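User: Second chain of the day. Same drill as before.
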Amino acid sequence: MKGRCPHCGHDVFYTPEPVHPSIQTQSTIMDNTFVTLSEHEGVTVSFWSCPNCGHTVVFSKINLGKDRPVKARTVWPFAANRHVPSSVPKHIMKDYVESAEVLPISEEASAALSRRCLQTVLKESGGAKKNDLSDQIDEVLPSLPTTLRESVDHIRVIGNFAAHSIKSKASGQIIEVQVGEAEWNLDVLDMLFDFYYVIPAKAKEKRDAANLKLKAAGKPPMK
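Assistant: Same format as last time:
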């Protein structure tokens, strides 16, 4: 099975991890998978190992019976291990962390939070003036590097903003999302955090260090 490891963030092919003997039951249908209730109605739980970091990832599928959609989610870890740089403003970090934490439970809720977070970043750091997220993306795109520009614009493609006016406005309402949309929003926010906060903070740190040396040498500081 292929996926992005919630521990290390790498795209990997998971390795089946045998169910521990203490939780094996008569419902075990594979070395790494067991079913509660019945195979046709109940919860299927499977254990996998990431070949990159070696950590365990546990998935579940909830089958509610005939004509009911099967719901799949990550059981462990509860939330993806997404690091937020300390240079990111606290109120932006809060929306991002909440979006990441709720992703395994509801992609729709996660996407609503990440769109709100994106809107805040574009307004406060990108200089966007308009009200709708789609218009704000248009405003900010020319100021972004080519690769980042394409990634930000792809949010509209995955989210199909043309068919979902609520998404284009980022009202925060919980609406259906495309597969991978919520996670892509977080990935793009990671890139924007680097561009708007991390890189400038590192540049300032280096400039301050250089100015200290210049001052010690009796020379004027860098501007």
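The first helix runs from residue 90 to 102.

User: Great, on to the next one.
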